[in-house]
Amino acid sequence: MAPQKPAAKQIKQLANEISFFRALSKDLLMQTITYLSFRNYPCSQSMLFENYYGGSIYFIAEGWIKVCAIDESSKNNIYTLYGPDEMVGAIAAVEEDWNPKEAVTLSPAKIWSIPTQDFLNLLQEDPQAGIQVAIFASKRLRKLNQYFRLREADSVTKVAHILLELMEQKENKINTKKHRVLIPNLPHRETAILSGVTRETVTRTLSKLEKKGLILRQGATIEILNLDFLQQLVNGNPTSV
Known about the structure:
Layout: H1 8-17, H2 19-22, H3 26-32, E1 37-41, E2 46-48, E3 56-62, E4 65-70, E5 76-82, E6 87-88, H4 90-94, E7 102-105, E8 109-115, H5 116-125, H6 127-149, H7 155-166, E9 181-184, H8 188-195, H9 199-211, E10 215-218, E11 221-224, H10 227-234
Antiparallel strand pairs: 1-8, 2-7, 3-6, 3-8, 4-5, 4-7, 9-11, 10-11
Helix pairs in contact: 5-6, 7-8, 7-10, 8-9
Domain Cyclic nucleotide-binding: 20-123
Keywords: DNA-binding, Transcription, Transcription regulation
Protein name: Crp/Fnr family transcriptional regulator
């Protein structure tokens, strides 16, 4: 049985939740997308398995995932994080290649997916789709440059950078006096791999930030209490924690 094409209601919901589709014509989306999938993933569940190509592009509505490879000692080597409103597999599809890594949720996640060929057809039909991919790629490159800049930074700055990255997809202007800024409280081992420090250092650093009143840990989440201070820390301004 052939897969059923998505209804207009599904396309509208997709466009409301993912900016890539919001910029495109709804009529074009209806014509081009042959299959649309939506799924809720629990924490620590694989979306993609290593060396498996499912022929889909994934769009994150909510939550965070890590792209990693598992070495011979069964340790996860994290390559990058993806968060809300980002897409997984887009660059590989454009390059007609597939990066054989595993994608695992770091928090509960809501994920949309469409067939890779539908994605490529959108790029061919609408220049705006190509512009959206270029914007996505430029943001990923900016993140990579930030990682390189912080390689020689102290451990507190490195951990603060990860905290800021986890909230990057939120509104550009955040008034912490009016809004609670919540991010996932990742396992310390995951934060250690992402920041390039030891797990023990992450534990000490988070305790230090909390004692200074910069963050508040609440089970599965961390509340950012002093966003300006964390940003100054990552930007290299003199501080003491």
